[in-house]
Amino acid sequence: MDDCLIGIDIDATTIRVACIQDNEIENMVSEEIRDNEDKYLIIDQIAVLVDRVLIPQVSGIGLGVPSVVDTQKGIVYDVQNIPSWEEVPVKAIYEKKFQLPVFVNNNANCFVLGEKYFGKGQSFDTVVGLVVCDSGLGAGIIIDGMLYEGRNCGAGEVGMFPYRNSIMEHYCSGQFFSRREGITALEACRLAAEGNAQIQALFEEFGIHFGIAVEAVIYAYDPEMIIIGGPISRAFSFFKDTMYSSLESFAYQNSLKKIAIEVTEDKRITLKGAAALVLENKLNCQV
Fold first, then answer.
1. Which UniProt keywords apply (predicted)?
2. Following DSSP, what letter does each residue of 54-112 receive, concatenated?
3. Do both 253 and 277 map to the same domain?
4. What is the share, in percent, of the chain residues with pLDDT greater than 90?
5. How far is Cα 33 from Cα 11, in angstroms, rounded to an integer?
6. pLDDT of residue 36
7. CB-side neighbour CA atoms (13 Å) of 287
8. Which H helix or E strand runs over 9?
9. Could you tell me which of 118, 124, 131, 269 has the fewest CB atoms within 10 Å of its CB?
10. Is the pLDDT of residue 278 over 60?
11. Rounded-to-integer distance, Cα 287 and Cα 283, Å
12. How many angstroms separate the CA atoms of 283 and 39, rounded?
C-alpha cells in the first residue's frame, strides 16, 4: 500500500490518531476524551491530534466511532458514552478543516477493514469480524471482498439478535460479566489470567453463549473466516473449548470445518481499519 493515510479511532474514553504508511503506523497520538458533554470541544480535540500527525503526503482521513453512522453524509448519531454527539456532521467539518477527503464508519466495520487490508483477512473474500467489548457485541462484514454495511450501516448488529428472552450481547459481551459479577471485561480477563477459578468458570459459561453467537453468524453470512477482536478476545484461551463444544450443534458440520476462526493479533487493527476507509472508498469507486 503506497497511500499515506490518517486513521482516527474513538472509543468510549479515548481518541487515537495515527499516520499510516507502507502498512505501518508511522506516528500515533492518543488522549483521553476531555469533556464528553461538550460537542465542539471534542471536535477541536480531534483536530489538534490530527494536526500533530498530518504530513503533506496524506491523501485521506478515516474515522471510526462507536455509533450509528450515515456513511454517505458522514454524520454520526448517538455516540456511545459521548452524550453531546447526538448528531455531528464530522465528514463536512473535517473536510473543510483539512481539505482532504474524510470517510466515517462504525468501529466494528473499521475492525474488519483493518483485518482485510492489514491483517488476517487479506487472503479471504468473505470475512466477519466479531468485536466483543464491554458494552456490546458487533460485527463487521466483508462479502466478496467488499465491506457490507446494509442500508443503514446496521448489517453487523449481531448483538441485538434475540436470545434467551433477551438479546445476544447480554450474554456475549462484557455485559455478561458486569451483570453476573459487577466487573468489566478487562477485569474479568485479568482475574482469569491470575488464576481466579470462579472467573475462569464464568468464561467457560461465556464460551457456550458465544459459540451460539458464532453459530448464528455462520448461518447468516457463511464466511470463510471469523476474526474475534475487542478486549474479551484476549481471554480466548479461557472460553475457546466451550465455544467449540457449543458449535457441535451446528447443523452443517462439514461446512464448519471449512471456516477459520481466529483471534486478532494486532491491538491497533481498528485504528488501521479507520484509515482503510479511504482505500475502501477507492475500491467502491472502481466497481
1. Kinase, Transferase
2. --TTEEEEEEEESSEEETTTTEEES-TT-TT-SEE-HHHHHHHHHSS-EEEEEHHHHHH
3. no
4. 85
5. 9
6. 74
7. 10
8. strand 4-10
9. 124
10. yes
11. 7
12. 32
Residues 133, 251 within the same domain = yes
Distance CA 108, CA 120 (A): 15
Residue 202: inside a domain: yes
- The DSSP-derived string for 229-269 is ESGGGGGHHHHHHHHHHHGGG-S-HHHHTT-EEEE---TTH
Q: What average pLDDT does the chain have?
A: 94
Is 119:89 a contact under the CB 8 Å cutoff? no
Clarify whether residues 27 and 76 are in a common domain. yes
Per-residue model confidence (pLDDT) at position 181: 96
In a domain, 113, yes or no: no
Angle, vertex CA 162, rays to CA 158 and CA 167, nearest 5: 75
d(CA 4, CA 122): 19
pLDDT for position 80: 75
Number of CB atoms found within 10 A of residue 268's CB: 17
Q: Is residue 112 part of a domain?
A: no
Query: Is the pLDDT assigned to residue 5 strictly greater than 70?
Result: yes
Residue range(s) defining the domain that contains residue 181: 120-263
Is the domain of 127 the same as that of 259? yes
pLDDT band at 135 (very low <50, low <70, confident <90, very high): confident
Q: How far apart are CA 165 and CA 184, in angstroms?
A: 23
* 197-221 vs 174-181: helix crossing angle, rounded to 10: 140
